[in-house]
Amino acid sequence: MSEANDRAVETVDEDPHEGGFRAHAAITTDRGGPRYGEFSEQVRLLMDNARYACPDDELVDELIESLKALNDRLADSRIDEWHSPAGTRIDLPSRGNITLPPYVVTEVNDNGVVAELTFRDFHLGGNNAAHGGHVAVAFDDVGGFASAVAIQHVSRTAYLTVQYRSITPLNTPLRIHAWADRIEGRKVFIKGTLYDGDRLCAEMDALFIKLNPGQA
Ligand SMILES: CCCCCCCC/C=C\CCCCCCCC(=O)SCCNC(=O)CCNC(=O)[C@H](O)C(C)(C)COP(=O)(O)OP(=O)(O)OC[C@H]1O[C@@H](n2cnc3c(N)ncnc32)[C@H](O)[C@@H]1OP(=O)(O)O
Predict the structure, then answer these.
(1) pLDDT tens, 180-208?
(2) Which tens digits make up the pLDDT trace of 104-117?
(3) Is the distance from the beta carbon of residue 25 to the nearest atom of ligand 1 less than 6 Å?
(4) C-alpha of 161 from chain center
(5) For site-directed labelling of 87, which of 42, 77, 142, 202 has its Cα 20 to 30 A away?
(6) How far is CA 102 from CA 94, 105, 119, 123, in A?
(7) How far apart (Å, rounded) are the C-alpha atoms in residues 190 and 162?
(8) What are the helix (H) ranges across the chain?
(9) Strands 124-126 and 199-210, how do they pair?
(10) How far is the CA of 154 from the centre of ligand 1 (A)?
(11) What is the pLDDT of residues 83-99, one digit of tens each?
(12) Ligand 1, residues 140, 156, 189: which to mutate, most atoms within 8 A of Cβ?
């Protein structure tokens, strides 16, 4: 962890907090203000550009100074995970969490969660295809979402298997679908698919476990 990142992480504890997760995910639309989505998009663009950039020495020197200044300013506004906009802003792609591939939920119902998801330049695996790990990240999040919808509670991933059926393209709106196949006690068996149009890119088979009160 960098020096800057060691700073300004304070725990805000006015909320009852049981275990590692809270019983209910926070849902907000105002944290970070009306332009937080634009801010997130700029961060994503930074990651996209960094992935493909080949800066010369002079530009690297300049970028390091700019990024240091930027990181110092950002570090001053850090807060604990439960109160940050990232992960709770349901009005933004992937709830404002820039570490996830951006997705926009289009359906939440008895058939699970459907979203339009786009892997960006940042998610490059090789030869213009998405990295398999990022595909798994997408399934984990949308799968966790589907589990939360099915049991109305927080769960953790016990296992998650991905079958990579065909290349997952970058910068292409894809359809991701996750649903509860069956529930046995605390066990929520989640299945999922990722399509580029009619073409199946990947499938998920996962188990999420409903957390007990106080469980991390
Ligand atoms: C309309 C707008 C609404 C907006 C709302 C927005 C809501 C959005 C909501 C949410 C979205 C967020 C989504 C995020 C998702 C991300 C989730 C993650 O990535 S989690 C991090 C990765 N996972 C870990 O780090 C877990 C590490 N492992 C553990 O902590 C434990 O092993 C755990 C909790 C998984 C299970 O431990 P135990 O002690 O609680 O339970 P035991 O007794 O071991 O297992 C319970 C049952 O499950 C089986 N089980 C457990 N693990 C298994 C495994 N790996 N394979 C097969 N069976 C397993 C066991 O055999 C047992 O089965 P038997 O009840 O006996 O039948």
Answers:
(1) 999 999 999 999 999 999 999 999 999 99
(2) 999 999 999 999 99
(3) yes
(4) 18
(5) 202
(6) 5, 10, 7, 11
(7) 12
(8) 36-52, 57-75, 132-151
(9) unpaired
(10) 9
(11) 999 999 999 999 999 99
(12) 156
Cut 0.90: pTM above it: yes
Tokens standing for 187? 């066990």
- Tokens describing residue 199: 């073409």
- How far is Cα of residue 174 from the mean position of the Cα atoms in its chain? 15
Amino acid at 145: F
Lowest mean pLDDT among 7-21, 27-41, 55-69: 7-21
What the block records as the tokens of 158 is 């016990």
Residue 143: the pLDDT is 98
- CA 144 – ligand 1 centroid, Å: 9
Q: Report the distance separating Cα 111 and Cα 104, nearest Å.
A: 17
What tokens does 41 get? 């998009």
ipTM for the predicted complex: 0.95
Q: Give the C-alpha distances (Å, rounded to integers) separating 114 from 68, 110, 144, 157, 182.
A: 39, 11, 12, 19, 18
C-alpha span between 10 and 188 (Å, rounded): 34
Q: Check if the beta carbon of residue 191 is closer than 8 Å to that of residue 158.
A: no
Q: Token match 């991905």: residue?
A: 162
Residue 144 tokens, joined: 């966790």
β partners of residue 189: 182, 207
Give the chain's length.
216
